[in-house]
Task: inverse folding
C-alpha cells in the first residue's frame, strides 16, 4: 500500500478491554494516522470501559460500542469490519481466528509476545504482525517469522523528550503519582478491583502523607467515584486523567507507584520518573513483577513471591492450558494477599517510598533491544500507509 491509495478512506481499531494498555496503543496509532493522513477516518470498536479513554484521546472520528472480548459477539461485527480499508487488532485475540484475508487487510499489534507459548491463534490471518520491542527475545521472533510476517517496532506511545525528561527529580513538585492502570479485564468480577483500589489507597495514604505534599491517584471513572468517598483531604486527588494530562503529571512528579503494566512502565522510563511497582492485578503483571524482582531489586516490587515463595508466579505461561487459567491463578493470589497480608503490603509500600533508584530505570530500559529513536506508532503507520512527510509531535 502507498499513501496515494488512501485519498479518502477509513480504518477500524478493535482493542481488548484488558486494562488501558491496548486502547492507549490504539489511540497512539490512530493519532499518528490523523497527523499523517488527515483525510482518513479512524473508528474505534470497544466497550464502555475503553470508549471513554478513546473519546478523551481525540484520536477517533467515530466510537462504536461493542463487546469485543467475546468471540460470539466479535463475530457479529465482522460484516461491519469488512467495510474498512484497514483493521487494527490491538491485542484483541478473538478477532484473529475469525478473520479471513479475503475480508480485507488486518494488522495485529501485540505487546505481550514475550509471554505467549506460541503465536496467538489466527495470527496468520494478519497482513503484518507488529511486535512491540519490550522483553521480546530475538529467538522467539525469528522462529515465528518462519510462518508469520512479523515486524518488531519500538515502544508504542511516547519518546524520551528533552523538555520533559530532563527536569531533575529534585526540582519537580513533591507529588506522589499513583497509577492503578485500567483495573479491568473480562475474566474478573469488578468488585475485586474495588477491594484492590480501596485497600492499597488507604495503605499508600498512610505511608506517604507525611513524605509528599500531594498524592494523586489515577484510576478509571467508576472506581474514582467510589474512592472519592473515602478521602476528604484536599492533598489527595482522585480521578481519571486523559493521556496527555497523565504524561504531564508523570513528568512533573517525584515518584510513581504503579501497577506493573508495560505502558506506564515505558512512560516512566521515557520521562525518567522514579517508580515502584504495586501488587499485580492480572497474569501479565504477575509475570512482569517476578521478572522485575530479579532485574531491579525486590524492594521496588510487590511480586507475589515476596509475600510467600509458595505464591511465586511462573515467568512463563507454557504450563497453562488456556488464557483463563493464568488470570485466575493471579487473581487468587492477589485476593489472598489483600485479605491476609496487609502488614506486608504496608511494609513493602514504605520500602518503595523510601528508595528512589535511578538504576532501576536503566535496567527497565534495557528490556528494549532496539534504539529508541522513534515511536512504535510511527513505524506502524509507515509500514501500513507509506511515509508521507509531516511535522509530528510524538509526545
Result:
Amino acid at each position: 500500500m502507498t499513501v496515494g491509495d488512501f485519498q479518502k478512506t477509513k480504518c477500524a481499531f478493535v482493542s481488548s478491554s484488558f486494562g488501558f494498555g491496548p486502547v492507549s496503543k490504539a489511540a497512539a496509532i490512530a493519532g499518528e494516522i490523523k497527523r499523517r493522513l488527515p483525510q482518513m477516518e479512524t473508528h474505534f470498536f470497544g466497550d464502555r470501559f475503553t470508549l471513554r479513554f478513546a473519546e478523551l484521546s481525540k484520536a477517533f472520528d467515530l466510537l462504536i460500542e461493542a463487546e469485543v472480548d467475546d468471540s460470539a459477539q466479535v463475530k457479529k461485527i465482522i460484516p461491519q469490519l469488512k467495510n474498512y480499508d484497514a483493521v487494527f487488532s490491538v491485542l484483541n485475540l478473538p478477532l484473529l481466528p475469525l478473520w479471513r484475508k479475503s475480508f480485507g487487510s488486518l494488522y495485529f499489534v501485540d505487546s505481550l509476545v514475550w509471554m505467549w507459548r506460541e503465536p496467538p491463534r489466527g495470527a496468520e490471518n494478519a497482513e503484518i504482525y507488529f511486535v512491540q520491542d519490550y522483553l521480546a527475545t530475538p529467538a522467539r521472533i525469528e522462529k515465528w517469522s518462519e510462518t508469520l510476517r512479523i515486524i518488531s517496532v519500538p515502544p508504542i506511545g511516547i519518546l524520551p523528550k528533552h523538555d520533559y525528561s530532563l527536569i531533575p527529580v529534585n526540582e519537580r513538585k513533591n507529588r506522589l503519582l499513583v497509577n492503578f492502570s485500567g483495573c479491568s479485564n473480562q475474566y474478573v468480577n469488578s468488585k475485586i478491583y474495588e477491594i484492590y483500589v480501596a485497600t492499597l489507597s488507604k495503605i499508600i495514604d498512610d505511608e506517604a502523607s507525611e513524605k509528599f505534599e500531594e498524592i494523586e491517584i489515577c484510576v478509571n471513572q467508576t472506581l474514582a467515584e467510589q474512592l472519592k468517598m473515602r478521602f476528604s483531604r484536599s492533598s489527595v486527588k482522585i480521578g481519571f486523567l486523559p493521556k496527555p494530562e497523565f504524561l504531564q503529571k508523570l513528568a512533573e512528579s517525584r515518584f510513581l507507584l504503579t501497577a506493573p503494566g508495560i505502558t506506564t512502565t515505558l512512560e516512566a522510563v521515557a520521562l525518567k520518573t522514579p517508580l515502584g511497582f504495586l501488587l499485580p492485578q492480572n497474569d501479565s503483571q504477575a509475570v512482569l513483577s517476578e521478572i522485575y524482582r530479579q532485574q531491579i531489586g525486590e524492594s521496588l516490587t510487590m511480586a507475589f513471591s515476596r509475600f510467600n515463595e509458595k505464591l511465586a508466579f511462573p515467568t512463563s505461561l507454557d504450563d497453562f492450558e488456556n488464557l483463563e487459567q493464568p488470570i485466575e491463578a493471579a487473581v487468587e493470589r492477589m485476593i489472598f494477599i489483600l485479605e491476609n497480608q496487609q502488614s506486608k503490603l504496608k511494609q513493602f509500600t514504605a520500602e518503595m517510598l523510601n528508595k528512589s533508584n535511578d538504576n532501576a530505570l536503566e535496567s527497565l530500559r534495557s528490556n528494549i533491544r532496539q534504539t529508541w529513536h522513534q515511536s512504535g506508532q510511527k513505524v506502524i503507520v509507515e509500514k501500513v500507509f507509506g511515509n508521507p512527510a509531516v511535522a509530528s509531535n510524538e509526545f
Notes: The chain has two domains: 3-157+372-385, 162-365. The mean pLDDT is 90. Residues 3-157+372-385 form a domain with the Rossmann fold fold (CATH 3.40.50.2000).
